[in-house]
Every structure is written in C-alpha cells, then in structure tokens.
Amino acid sequence: MYRMETRTNQELLGEIGHRLRRERMNQDLTQDMLADRTGLRQATISRVERGNDFTVETLITILRALDRLENLDVFLPAPTASPIELAQHQGRERQRVRPSRPDELVNTGWQWGDEH
User: How far is it, in rounded angstroms, from Cα 101 to Cα 86?
Assistant: First the structure.
C-alpha cells in the first residue's frame, strides 16, 4: 500500500467513500436507511460512496448519522499553541501570520519610469 501523501484527491475521495460504505454496511444499514437518517437523497449517499465530490457538510451529516462524528477529532485534532509560542506572544494565541520580510517590500532596484 502506498502513502496517503502520494494519492490524488480523487483517490482519497474514493478511499473515504469506501470507508463510509464499509461502516454503513457494518451497521447493517442500506443506503436508503442511511438516507432516511441523514435527510440526504439515496443518490447522494451512493455518489459519496463511489468517491465523487461531496461537501464537508455532507461528510459531517453522514458521520453524525453513523455515530462516528468523534472521528473528526482524529482526522483534525484541535490545534494548541506551544509553550514557546505562548511565551513569545505574551500568553496570547496568534491571530494571524505575517511574513518577517514580505517579498513585495524587498528592494528589486526597479523605480518609476524604468523600462521593462
């Protein structure tokens, strides 16, 4: 098996769809039953399971109906600031990132009136 980082987006969508299908089947649910639980159409469930594009909202809806919403914490844990970062910012979490030396401020030698 190859690493997730080398997979295309479409391959990853297919893998997510496959895993959702396996979980649905492990819970002895048909696509129609899951559609009833979610309020989604059966065709939407089928498209997701085939790896077609879907929204994050659709994914959350399906995970909630399968009682697997806690898996989002594994997928994307809540970020925390490191102690060093907190010390650098006087105990406050950063609100934005600013480059230390923006490229557009670097002197390129060009001046108004110069030809291209």
Answer: 22
Half-sphere exposure of 106 (CA within 13 A, CB side): 6
Task: Please check whether residue 66 is in contact with residue 59, taking contact to mean a CB–CB distance below 8 angstroms.
Answer: no
Closest CA to 72 of 80, 84, 63: 63
SS3 track for the chain: CCCHHHCCHHHHHHHHHHHHHHHHHHCCCCHHHHHHHHCCCHHHHHHHHCCCCCCHHHHHHHHHHCCCCCHHHHHCCCCCCCHHHHHHCCCCCCCCCCCCCCHHHCCCCCCCCCCC
The 10s digit of each residue's pLDDT in 17-46 is: 999 999 999 999 999 999 999 999 999 999
The mean per-residue pLDDT over the stretch 56-75 comes to 94
Of the candidates 70, 62, 69, 22, which has an alpha carbon nearest to the alpha carbon of residue 44? Answer: 62
The token pair that represents 52 in the structure block:
């077609």
